[in-house]
Amino acid sequence: MDTKSFKRSLQQSDNYHRKGFGHEAEVMETLESEYQSDLIQEIRNNNYILKKGRITIYLAQAFGFCWGVERAVAMAYETRQHFPGERIWITNEIIHNPSVNQRLKEMQVGFIAMKGNEKDFSVVQSGDVVILPAFGASVTEMELLDNKGCQIVDTTCPWVSKVWNSVEKHKKRDYTSIIHGKYNHEETIATSSFAGIYLIVLNMSQAQYVADYILNGGDREEFLAKFKNAHSQGFDPDKDLTYIGIANQTTMLKSETEAIGKLFEHTMLRKYGPLQLNQHFMSFNTICDATQERQDAMFELVEEELSLMVVIGGFNSSNTTHLQEIAINRRIPSYHIDSAARILPGNRIEHKPLDRDLTVAENWFPEGVVKVGITSGASTPDKVVEEVIEKIFLFLD
Ligand code: SF4
Question: Whole-prediction pTM value?
Answer without folding.
Answer: 0.88
